[in-house]
Amino acid sequence: MAIGECEVQAGSRGVPASFIDLPCLRAGEIGTVLEVDASPAARKRLADMGFIRGAQLEMLRPGSPCIVRIDGACVGLGNGHQKRIRLRLP
Amino acid sequence: MRSEERVLASPRVKSVAVVGNPNTGKTTLFNALTGFRQRVGNYPGVTVESKVGWLRDAGETGAIEVIDLPGTYSLSARSADEAVVLDTLLGHTDALERPDLIVVVVDASHPRRNLFLLTQILELGRPVIVALNMMDVARGRGIHWDAAALARRLGVPVVPVVATRREGIEALTKTILTAEHAAPRVPGPALPPAVDAELAALEEWKAGDAEPPDTRPVRAQWLQALLDPAGYHEQRLAVRWGADVTQRLGAARARLEAAGHGVPEIEAVARYAWIEQLLRDVVTCPHRPRRSKSEGADRVLTHPVAGLLIFAGLMLLMFQSLYEWAAPLADAIDRAVALSGAAVANWVPPGTLRSLLVDGALAGVGAVLVFLPQIMLLFLFLGILEDCGYLSRAALLVDRFMNVAGLSGKSVIPLLTSFGCAVPGILATRTIENARDRVLTMLIAPLMSCSARLPVYVLLVGAFVPERTLLGGWLHVQATVLTVMYLIGVIVAIPVAWVLKRTLLRGETLPFLMELPAYRWPTPRTVLYRVYEQGKEFCLRAGTIVFAVTVVIWALGYYPRPASVTPLPAAGQDGAVASGEAELAAAARAPAAGPTADGTNLEGSYLGRMGRWLEPVVRPLGWDWRIATATIASLPARELVVATLGTLFHMGGGDGGEPVELKERLQRAVRADGRPVFTLPVALSVMVFFSLCCQCAATLAAIQRETHSWRWPALTFGYMTALAYVGALVTYQVASRLMA
Ligand SMILES: Nc1nc2c(ncn2[C@@H]2O[C@H](COP(=O)(O)OP(=O)(O)OP(=O)(O)O)[C@@H](O)[C@H]2O)c(=O)[nH]1
Ligand SMILES: [Mg+2]
Known about the structure:
The complex is a heterodimer of chains A (about 90) and B (about 750). Chain A has a single domain (about 20-90), classed as SH3 type barrels (Roll), CATH 2.30.30.90. In chain A, about 15% of the residues lie in helices and about 35% in strands. Chain A contains two helices and six strands; from the N terminus they run E-E-H-E-E-E-H-E. Chain A has helices spanning about 40-50, 80, and strands at about 20, 30-35, 55-60, 65-70, 75, 85-90. The chains are: A alpha+beta (about 90), B mainly alpha (about 750). Strand 5 (about 75) of chain A pairs antiparallel with strand 11 of chain B, so a sheet runs across the interface. The structure holds guanosine-5'-triphosphate and magnesium ion.
């Protein structure tokens, strides 16, 4: 299955293995948002929908756009948003 | 005057706004409260305008206005539909007075995110009632609410409802009627002191300037202006007070960043933390949510390969069945129209009245009405797609392909809507945040084959495409041609969008971001009402615009009355158009000239003369002058071409009253030189023309309204007409060579 643009593999780039970008999350995995590193407008948009530090995301369908579950709701996220969301794995 | 009344009568509310996240059931609730039947559907962005109704059980208090609004996730607007919400809530529209009570619809099955908007609205300083909707869904998921506890903590009434089943509507109505005209005093989420200080400074800065004081921005507005760079509020305030505002806000943001506050997030972090506290003991959720059926369905339906195949299959099924399933019914209506034409012809003596009734009204309006079954079937399909929750999945699936053309998946819903009618499709573009992408979507929306093209396709396919099957009976040629007509618009839209995106509408496309609602069985009531509504609309159009244009066409084709069967009145007397003269001379020699057996005189009529001028333009397309005339007559609305062809070929028909269906009339029609008017290449060329042209005044007006400019509708009409002509030309030239 295509996993979008998963360039940063967990463990590479000297980042501890438990930090990962959203596109690298596999189906069924859950992560906690660490930071959203997008433009202020996009950050505002995402924050309004609940994508803030500490929010739990479950990957339902990886790819571009992916589908994640956040607070019980399914949200489709395009690649431009996905790759800006950094997660911590439990 | 109204505000005076309010003071004198009672402090009761006069108007109520229904606000909430997208797809939480606001319109369903609005309909239940008012008895109206506004459109609902299971995808975010069904409602994109404000709609006003009146509370049904207002009792003695007099009329209470209820305003349905689009959905929004927060009080900062980015797209046009979200701006409608703020314009209404803040009293920025002239059409509506500022509502004095806000009903916030909260989807009980998604507690946190819905309360985010609620906490923002509580700070607007207006009375609020919380409608806790979708209680049935919440219960099904094991989510339990303590509404009384929530009301106590928030200090506002909380009414649990199930809008679809009208549960709790009475209680909500009562709560609205007895609502106090006082703003809640909510212990809202505390923002960091540094933010509070900035807001206080901003408020104080403009405290004296705002006259009347009613228009003074409240703190909640300053907060959104501060947090959303170049957003709705900043733009509004800048229009009012100039660039000063921008400068001040920019400086404040810089100070906050320097103090270590992430500017857009501070608010969300504070609010979500507060909501977490608020909901403790108010809501109990199951510890680990069960995997829902909806997610199981999504495994297949949004699968990158299987999902796309299913989507393509669904669309093909829809177009194919439009022909296969509805054709028998349409044939029956056609037969009935032909029979009643013959009956009228028997009762009414020959003459002007009979011609008007039979050739004008029945042949024209009847020709259009025949296609009612197809129209209803199309809207049945679209209604089911809209109400089951599939539309937003379609948007997600197609997003990648839309990116190639320079658009995002957000444009998919307006485009799919346009298969029904481009006007609601153009309205639906309001959900697209990026203004340029929005205009681009409007410009290509009319290329999607709308329901008004269906009559043209079905008539010509039925009359001229052979009724054969290929691939061992699997592929019906007629249904396939219809499907191809639908695909032409889609395929042409891609390069058109690509070119526009690289020339007039350059700019970055925003990444896809859309909530996918849980699948739901379509409600028969909703879907059938939509079919009924569209069927009614179609008949209404047949009775009004189609009827009017048909009568005009009939009159132009009936007059002037020839004095006797002498050579035609010489229109060439004016001597203006040389080619027209030559044509007329040819017509005079032709056997069809002069009044026909039933007393009509089409060739010599005003219409006939006009048609002759058009002939050279359409000759390369293989068209007869009558087709050209019908095309011109259908400038206001596409289905008119069918009505006009009905009238034109009835008048020239001279069949003295036997019942003949329009299909057959077209097959029999001959030109002056005896060749048939229609052949397969001609029929294909007409269909291609209509699939690409923009003969629809309502569409152009909608684009004008939404863009506030005549430039875009003019461009749309221009490019589509050019495409249509070229498309028809190529089709005819290629097809006639292939057939030869
Ligand atoms: N089960 C259930 N479904 C509901 C309820 N209320 C609304 N719905 C369904 O939810 C979907 C959305 O309803 P709408 O009324 O269109 O929602 P909206 O908030 O107006 O949506 P937008 O205009 O897109 O913002 C429809 O399919 C409704 O049938 C409810 O109380 N229970
Ligand atoms: Mg709605």
